[in-house]
Specification:
- By secondary structure, the protein is α/β, with parallel strands linked by helices.
- It has a single domain, classed as Alpha-Beta Complex (Amidase signature (AS) enzymes), CATH 3.90.1300.10.
- It has 17 helices and 13 strands.
- The strands form 2 sheets. Strands 1-3-2-6-8-7-12-13-11-9-10 form an 11-stranded mixed sheet, sandwiched between helices. A two-stranded antiparallel sheet has the order 4-5.
- Helix 2 runs antiparallel to helix 3 and helix 11 packs across helix 15.
Length: 498
C-alpha cells in the first residue's frame, strides 16, 4: 500500500524526538504528515475508520510547542509528538467525547480528563479521537468489535475484513497503520489487550486505580483502566509515564535482557486448545522466552479457574457498576442530550435505523433493571470475584511458585468481521485469557508474538499482581527483543487461505 510519509509507519517516539531535537522536522510538520496518512488510509484507500475525529487545533498546538522548543524549553520525550485518545475520554477542547454513540453528539466535554491534562503537560499533541466498539462494547452480547453508530466499522489494517479487536479498536488500528505513534485505550476486560494483539501492537492495561478514571465514560469502577497502545514496549512505557506525570519511571524498566533470570508461570488449562494456530505461536513464544534466559514453570494451575469459569460474578458486578457509573458521568455533563442510562436506551429506540441496525441493547436493558450498588447481590458478587482471582487465583499462584509473572496461551487470530450475525460482546461465565487479571484489577500486557497464515497477528500476554507494571514492561521488552515479531500491515482486502 503506497501511503504518504512511509517513514512514519514504524517510527518510534525516540526517533521522532531525535528529529525534532535536530531541527529536521517541526511538530507542526509531524501533525501535517500524520494527517496526510489519515486522509490516505483512514478516510480513503483501505478506509480503516480508526479515527473518529481530528483535532481542529492540532497544528496550532504543535506550532506553540515548536516555539517553546525554539526558546529552549523541552517538556520531555513526548514534546511535539502526535498521539490519539479513545473517544470515551474527555478532552476539554473542540473535539467531542461520545463513546461512539450518536446520543452524545453535541457539545464537547467541559474539561480534560486528568490523564489528558497530563499528556498535554508532557507536550504531546492530541491529534484526534479514535473509533471504538460503541459504549466500549457493553451494549449487547451480540456486537461487532470496532462498530459504533458514530464511526461505523473499524477495519484491521493487516486484513481489512478481519476484526481489529475491541473495544479500543481505533486505538489499535491507528498506531498499527502509522496514523499516530501511539494511542490511549481503555479496558474493562480485554479492551486494550485484544485490539493490541489483533493489530500487532504492545498494549498495557495498568492496575486499576493507577490512572484516574475521572473523565472517562465508565463501565466498571472496579475493573476500568486507561492504558497505552503503541508499536514498541518502550513507546508504551513512555506514554504511560506521560499519563502519570512520572517521566522515565516505567520507560527505565524496558531492558533488552529483561527475561534473563525471570520466573514465569505457564498457564495451559483451561485455555490451551481453543485455537491450534495461536497454540503454535504460544509454544514458539515459550521457547523464545527460555532461550532469552527465562525460567519457565510449566505448567502452573489456577485453583479457582473452574469455579470462576462457571460464575456470573463478573457480569453481575459490571451491570450494577455500569448503571451507577454512567448515570454519575452523565449527570456531570449537563449539556449532553441524555442524562441517564434510561435516556440512552430511549434515544437508541428513537434512532434505531442508525444505532440498532445490526445488534440491540440487551446489556443496557439488563443494567437498567439493576438496583443500587448497595444491594447485597452486588457486594457478594464483587467479593466472590476478587477472592477467586486474587487470594485464590493470581496471588496464590505467584506465591506458590515464586513467580514474577504468569502467561496464558496467545490470542486467537483475528476473526472475520460479522455485522449480520455478530456475537462477541459481554456474556456471563467463561474464562477468557484477560478475565483473571480483569476481575482482580491487576495489570496485563500484550506483545506481538507472531502470525497465523502469514498475515493474522497473534499476541502473547503476561500478567502479575497489583503494581507490577515495571516488571511486566521489563519482561515484555525482553520478549520483544528476543522475537522481533512486530511488522507493518499490508492492508490485504481479505486473506487468501489455502
Amino acid at each position: 500500500m503506497n501511503a504518504p510519509h512511509p517513514e512514519l509507519a514504524e517510527a518510534t517516539i525516540d526517533d521522532l524526538a531525535a528529529q525534532l531535537a535536530a531541527g529536521r522536522v517541526t511538530a507542526a510538520e509531524l501533525v501535517e504528515a500524520h494527517v496526510a496518512r489519515i486522509e490516505a488510509l483512514d478516510r480513503a484507500g483501505p478506509t480503516l475508520r480508526s479515527v473518529i475525529e481530528l483535532n481542529p487545533d492540532a497544528v496550532e498546538i504543535a506550532r506553540a510547542l515548536d516555539r517553546e522548543r525554539a526558546a529552549g524549553r523541552v517538556r520531555g520525550p513526548l514534546h511535539g509528538i502526535p498521539v490519539m485518545v479513545k473517544d470515551n475520554i474527555d478532552t476539554g477542547d473542540r473535539m467531542q467525547t461520545t463513546a461512539g454513540s450518536l446520543a452524545l453528539v453535541g457539545p464537547p466535554a467541559g474539561r480534560d480528563a486528568p490523564l489528558v491534562a497530563r499528556l498535554r503537560e508532557a507536550g504531546a499533541v492530541l491529534l484526534g479521537k479514535t473509533n471504538l466498539s460503541e459504549w466500549a462494547n457493553f451494549r449487547s452480547p451480540a456486537s461487532s468489535s470496532g462498530w459504533s453508530g458514530r464511526g461505523r466499522q473499524t477495519r484491521n489494517p493487516y486484513v481489512l475484513d478481519r476484526t481489529p479487536g475491541g473495544s479500543s479498536s481505533g486505538s489499535g488500528a491507528a498506531p498499527a497503520a502509522g496514523l499516530a505513534v501511539a494511542a490511549v485505550g481503555t479496558e474493562t476486560d480485554g479492551s486494550i489487550v485484544s485490539p493490541s494483539a489483533a493489530c500487532c501492537l504492545v498494549g498495557l492495561k495498568p492496575t486499576v486505580g493507577l490512572l484516574s478514571g475521572e473523565g472517562v465514560i465508565p463501565i466498571s469502577a472496579s475493573q476500568d483502566s486507561a492504558g497505552p497502545m503503541a508499536r514498541t514496549v518502550r513507546d508504551a512505557a513512555l506514554l504511560l509515564d506521560a499519563m502519570l506525570g512520572s517521566p522515565g519511571h516505567h520507560a527505565a524498566a524496558c531492558a533488552a535482557d529483561g527475561l534473563r533470570g525471570a520466573r514465569i508461570g505457564v498457564l495451559r488449562e483451561p485455555w490451551i486448545g481453543a485455537n491450534r494456530h495461536s497454540d503454535r505461536v504460544y509454544e514458539a513464544a515459550l521457547e523464545a522466552m527460555r532461550e532469552a534466559g527465562a525460567e519457565l514453570v510449566d505448567p502452573v494451575l489456577i485453583d479457582s479457574a473452574e469455579e470462576l469459569r462457571t460464575s456470573e460474578c463478573e457480569l453481575t458486578v459490571l451491570l450494577y457498576e455500569f448503571k451507577d457509573g454512567l448515570n454519575r458521568y452523565l449527570a456531570a455533563r449537563p449539556d449532553a442530550g441524555v442524562r441517564t442510562l434510561a435516556d440512552v436506551i430511549e434515544f437508541n429506540l428513537r434512532h434505531a435505523d442508525r444505532e440498532l441496525p445490526y445488534f440491540g441493547q440487551e446489556t443496557f436493558e439488563r443494567a437498567e433493571a439493576m438496583g443500587p450498588v448497595t444491594d447485597d447481590a452486588y457486594r457478594e458478587a464483587l467479593a466472590l470475584g476478587r477472592r477467586l482471582t486474587r487470594e485464590q487465583g493470581i496471588d496464590a499462584c505467584l506465591a506458590r511458585h515464586a513467580l514474577d509473572a504468569l502467561t496464558v496461551p496467545c490470542s486467537s487470530p483475528p476473526a472475520a468481521i460479522e455485522l449480520v450475525s455478530p456475537g462477541r460482546g459481554w456474556t456471563a461465565g467463561g474464562l477468557g485469557a484477560s478475565r483473571l487479571a480483569a476481575i482482580a484489577g491487576y495489570p496485563i500486557i500484550s506483545v506481538p508474538a507472531g502470525f497465523a497464515f502469514g498475515d493474522l497477528p497473534v499476541g502473547m500476554r503476561l500478567f502479575a499482581g497489583a503494581g507490577s507494571e515495571r516488571t511486566l514492561l521489563r519482561l515484555a521488552a525482553g520478549f520483544e527483543r528476543a522475537t522481533s515479531a512486530r511488522r507493518s500491515p499490508r492492508y490485504l482486502p481479505t486473506l487468501d487461505l489455502p
